[in-house]
């Protein structure tokens, strides 16, 4: 989920980080370890993702959740191909991500300097995703209240919602509190897509709906038995990290 | 013989270089032969804890009766066997009665070592005197009452123990006899591979037909071609014992340790003799049962789990990938009467043996976090009854007991 691009280090930064590593290395020799014989290994070792269970919001307020469900349903509308973003669990997915390391950027470098970057360098400002959703949703609803007869985003008709989202994406709207409309739209789009296509274990992609739609086989990693079978559909149903209906013993 | 002249390491080369100055060549030979006996007998497997000085005491052994800790057998006078005489040592290996009449528990495999020749035991003793003495007191006896009473071993020995040296069978070849000697004597293969009586003794009438130990199952290694090693050629047995892998399987757990510390270091002709002997032994069911049909509900669930979870490594056809992922099709380990090893592998994972010829040490991931007891039972039932395999189904309660 951490999609921020790291800035390319300059030569000087590189040199100083080497010096740092050497210092740290001599202070704590455990950092460098040579391994001979078998690779290190431990029985029962696994770092499995925890299955997200629906029920209550951990990050969003009910109003925020409602807003995001409306957004998700416009970005992934229910149609003959699949269910919509809301029913697929995209907001559940997002809610749980925002209380985890993604929401707090706890695995990213977050100390400045903060300078405008190139488009290819991704998001460069100090706010964490959690802060961006908090301020972004508030700004979006303030904007629609102001311009759409006092209605919150979720209360608009689907066609009006589409119009607002289209303008957000194009940067035609100026949101209050200095929220960057375009950048907030891109954040929502990326996260809703993740929720829709990621493994159901993370809360979205209910019943592997998006994988069934695409014919994506899921969490598998070996196709030796099928590489030579040209122009034949892959026969096995998709499978989640947590298994599938076919695994049900009763 | 002075210990100062003789503070030797396990490395025979450094040893023989230094030795030439100090000792007569015949004694050097004796010690080198004794060191080889310690490899055949794999004394270090139990008597050396990981990372500790050689033979200075091991990790606790779990027995059905409680814990026993293999003691310090370095020549340290205070905490090892420095005060023992050669006669004490001989008696310990031959009768299970050590220094001062101490009755040993058969967790020390004297019921196998009793088959060793006097010469081999003598050589082993000469070698043990040269090991670095280490001060490390160990209280072996951690058993609960009444098993903690050493005298109870008197009764045990009367019931379960037939002392006596190996008797060659003159109708068989010298190679066969050498193999039988190593397997039954110093190699103590039956300590793991023979089923146990309720008293914890080897079930001699079912020698090498498979036994449970500390959460692993040491499989049938007789010449039985259904669940033994009958379908392996002698060369494949040799390759397994020398390197830990052959086209069929990759050794794990206690056998990986036995291969690393013992069989891979044995002389080629000795390993070949073992193969000749094992191929000639018989035991276990002659007939393969009918496999559970693929239409069975457990088999269907098992098939789905297998193809989603295991086939990436072991192949859709169960044939594995030689040296890297063992074949499950036709595997005798997969078809043993007990599914203990299989359950353990799936729940805990396992790292393959490491020998100079097999350095990759591929590992099987632990899958206990993602599969329920019912699911593990179903997938194991499936692998035990697919691709020509046939073996009893596995129940969910067997899995729960091993979690």
Provide a descriptive summary of the structure in words:
The complex is a heterodimer of chains A (250) and B (403). Chain A contains 8 helices and no strands. With 250 residues, chain A is an all-alpha fold. Chain A has one domain. Chain A is globular and about 65 Å long. By secondary structure, chain B is mainly alpha-helical. Chain B folds into 3 domains: 25-152; 174-280, Orthogonal Bundle (Cytochrome Bc1 Complex, Chain D, domain 2), CATH 1.10.760; 297-400, Cytochrome Bc1 Complex, Chain D, domain 2 (Orthogonal Bundle). Chain B has helices at 12-22, 25-40, 43-47, 86-95, 110-113, 118-128, 152-160, 174-184, 190-193, 234-243, 253-261, 268-280, 297-314, 340-348, 373-384, 396-402; strands spanning 61-63, 66-68, 141-142, 211-213, 216-218, 350-351, 363-364. In chain B, a hairpin with a 2-residue loop joins strand 1 (61-63) and strand 2 (66-68). The model of chain B is unreliable at 1-21 (pLDDT under 50). Classes of the chains: A mainly alpha (250), B mainly alpha (403).
What's this entry about, in short?
With 250 residues, chain A is mainly α. Helices cover 40% and strands 0% of the residues of chain A.
Ranges of chain B where pLDDT stays below 50 over 5 or more residues in a row are 1-21
Summing up helix and strand content along with how strands pair, one would put the structural category of chain A as: mainly alpha
Q: How many domains comprise the coordinates of chain A?
A: 1
Oligomer: heterodimer
Global mean pLDDT of chain A:
87
Number of helices of chain A: 8
């Amino acid at each position: 989920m951490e999609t921020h691009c790291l800035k390319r280090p300059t030569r000087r930064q590189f040199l100083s980080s080497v010096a740092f590593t050497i210092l740290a290395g001599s202070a704590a020799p455990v950092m460098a370890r040579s391994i001979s014989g078998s690779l290190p290994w431990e029985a029962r070792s696994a770092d499995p993702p925890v299955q997200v269970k629906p029920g209550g919001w951990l990050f969003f307020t009910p109003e925020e959740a409602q807003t995001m469900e409306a957004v998700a349903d416009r970005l992934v509308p229910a149609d003959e191909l699949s269910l919509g973003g809301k029913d697929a669990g995209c907001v559940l997915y997002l809610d749980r991500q925002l209380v985890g390391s993604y929401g707090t950027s706890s695995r990213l470098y977050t100390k400045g300097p903060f300078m405008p970057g190139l488009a290819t360098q991704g998001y460069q400002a100090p706010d964490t995703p959690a802060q961006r959703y908090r301020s972004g949703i508030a700004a979006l609803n303030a904007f629609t209240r102001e311009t759409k007869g006092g209605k919150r985003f979720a209360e608009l008709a689907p066609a009006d919602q589409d119009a607002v989202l289209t303008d957000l994406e194009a940067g035609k709207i100026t949101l209050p509190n200095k929220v960057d409309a375009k950048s907030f739209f891109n954040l929502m789009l990326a996260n809703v897509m993740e929720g829709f296509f990621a493994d159901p274990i993370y809360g979205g992609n209910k019943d592997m709906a998006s994988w069934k739609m695409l014919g994506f086989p899921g969490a598998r990693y070996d196709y030796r038995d099928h590489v030579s079978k040209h122009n034949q559909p892959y026969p096995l149903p998709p499978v989640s990290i947590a298994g599938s209906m076919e695994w049900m013993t009763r | 013989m002075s210990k100062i002249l003789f503070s030797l390491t396990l490395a025979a080369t450094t040893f023989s270089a230094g030795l030439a100055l100090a000792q007569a060549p015949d004694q050097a030979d004796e010690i080198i032969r004794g060191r080889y006996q310690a490899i055949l007998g794999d004394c270090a497997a139990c008597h050396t804890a990981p990372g500790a000085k050689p033979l200075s005491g091991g990790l606790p052994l779990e027995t059905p009766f409680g814990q026993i800790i293999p003691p310090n057998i370095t020549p340290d006078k205070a905490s090892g066997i420095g005060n023992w005489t050669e006669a004490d040592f001989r008696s310990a290996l031959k009768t299970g009665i050590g220094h001062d009449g101490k009755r040993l528990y058969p967790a020390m495999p004297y019921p196998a070592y009793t088959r060793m020749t006097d010469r081999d035991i003598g050589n082993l003793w000469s070698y043990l005197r040269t090991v670095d003495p280490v001060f490390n007191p160990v209280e072996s006896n951690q058993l609960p009452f009444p098993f903690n009473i050493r005298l109870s071993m008197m009764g045990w020995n009367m019931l379960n123990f037939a002392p006596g040296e190996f008797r060659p069978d003159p109708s068989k070849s010298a190679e066969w006899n050498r193999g039988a000697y190593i397997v039954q004597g110093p190699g103590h293969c039956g300590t793991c591979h023979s089923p146990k009586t309720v008293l914890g003794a080897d079930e001699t009438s079912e020698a090498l037909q498979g036994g449970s130990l500390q959460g692993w199952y040491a499989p049938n290694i007789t010449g039985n071609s259904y669940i033994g090693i009958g379908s392996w050629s002698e060369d494949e047995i040799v390759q397994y014992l020398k390197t830990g892998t052959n086209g069929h399987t990759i050794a794990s757990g206690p056998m990986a340790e036995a291969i690393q510390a013992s069989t891979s270091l044995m002389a080629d002709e000795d390993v070949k003799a073992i193969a000749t002997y094992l191929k000639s032994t018989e035991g276990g069911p002659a007939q393969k049962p009918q496999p559970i049909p693929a239409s069975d509900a457990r088999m269907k669930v098992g098939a789905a789990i297998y193809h989603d979870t295991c086939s990436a490594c072991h192949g859709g056809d169960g044939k594995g990938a030689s040296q890297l992922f063992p074949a499950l099709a036709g595997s005798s380990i997969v078809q043993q009467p007990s599914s203990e090893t299989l359950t353990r592998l799936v729940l805990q994972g396992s790292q393959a043996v490491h020998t100079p010829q097999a350095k990759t040490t591929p590992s099987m991931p632990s899958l206990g976090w993602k599969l329920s007891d019912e699911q593990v039972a179903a997938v194991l039932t499936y692998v035990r009854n697919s691709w020509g395999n046939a073996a009893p189904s596995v129940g969910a309660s067997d899995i729960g007991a091993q979690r």
